[in-house]
Amino acid sequence: MKKFVPFVVDVALVVVFCAIGRRSHDESIGAGLLRTFWPFGAGLLLGWVISLAVAAGREGASAAQRFDGRAVWPTGVIVWLSTLVGGMLLRVVSGQGIAFSFVLVAASFLALFVVGWRAAVQVLR
């Protein structure tokens, strides 16, 4: 069960990122949160799948037992990039659109949220 905690933290922080974004544009948080979240949530899920595959490919079949979802590298970086790139691509495909400034803001906030908490945990350990 403890292996799922980092995934839950990531999901919660991406929801917070989406809520902050909606609020900063004076949009209803409740009504459109799912519409804003799903592209980034799908990218996040893909990042976790890629991270597990990288661990399994690098360390063998027993990697799932030793996999650390709290690691900055490679897990945090993979999850961050996948959330950002996957989220942006899915936004475009679904007609939600993106702007260059939004990509920069999203990259910064998602790095702070997805990689930042992992770095803080490592420093505190």
Automatic annotation (TrEMBL):
InterPro entries: DUF3054. This is DUF3054 family protein. It holds the Pfam family DUF3054. The lineage of its organism: Bacteria, Bacillati, Actinomycetota, Actinomycetes, Mycobacteriales. Keywords: Membrane, Transmembrane, Transmembrane helix. The chain crosses the membrane at residues 7-25, 37-59, 71-92, 98-120. It comes from Nocardia aurantiaca.
